[in-house]
Amino acid sequence: xxxxxxxxxxxxxxxxxxxxxxxxxxxxxxxxxxxPLGLSSALFAAKADIPVLTKPTDxxxxxxxxxxxxxxxxxxxxxxxxxxxxYMGGLHLKSSDNxxxxxxxxIVSEDGSQMLAVSDCGYWIGANLGYQGGRLTTxxxxxxxxxxxxKGRSMTGCSAKAEGDAEALTEIPGxxxxxxxxxxxxxxxxxxxxxxxxxxxxxxPLPLPVDxxxxxxxxxxxTGIEAMTTIDGGNIVAIAEDTKRGDGVLPGWIIGxxxxxxxxxxxxxxxxxxxxxxxxxxxxxxxxRRFTLLQGLGARIKRIAKGDVRSNQRIEGEHIxxxxxxxxxxxxxxxxxxxxxxxxxxxxxxxxDNYFPFQRTLLMMFRLDS
Length: 370
Fold this sequence. Notes:
With 370 residues, this protein is mainly β. Helices cover 9% and strands 42% of the residues.
């Protein structure tokens, strides 16, 4: 395992029919999708003020949560399959606590009882999961805790987005959590687990060679390392969301205890990687998301054979499933996998609502059919 040493333009009228056509009933255009049309500045300005926190609020706390069941398909409510995925339940998560939201990346415990995510505004978000008949039915005991910087200060609040915008999360067994931040692109190691993330944990920068640090720092402002997972008991695999070229040829890194290798991940269309997880058999799943005006919201999952993750490899992956309207999705940014009680492979995907009231936080579970 690793050793840690120290897009502007003319006006646009968006009608209700357009919204429903592109994003489905209950969906609205995101700031990211509107950005190329010059409509996002007011929305981002509003987001920057949510949440505005005071110091007494900035502590770990268990907060209210509601979890309402959702269907997989908005027009065919009995549909249970998409691609190689069988739907095993999903929930729309809501909380009155304004710190809840903006969830990125996802880890689920081996027994499925716990989940952990990070947020755009510098929070750890953890909860317990419940099941009935093998289906995901409840999320409870929602706990929110601030993430700390190198000096032990809270990085919370969207006004500090460049500092606390956590986008990717992976756990190295016996060592702790690696978190990728964007804005100020960096990888930090926290000695935290799913059981004690709510205790204040100081991070350390991941000790990377200077040339790798420069590559990561040079990524575009809002498109850093979004997909990250752990393989081989401790090696980290990471993929950038985009590059300044914008050609869909994305840099990837394999970070080990003695060496770092690079590969390229290929996305020949508008999808971009937003998270990654390791399957029980060692293969990887990459969650990709699309956020455009003309094509709408989309999520896609690809499988990478474990033997393909090696130096200088060009990787595209095997298509597993694509979810677009009228499938019931939002801005999907988290994926996790585990082995179920009967040996089946269970997949969870999670959405980031960007702290906007017209987006949703969705947690969905699937069984992966081989």
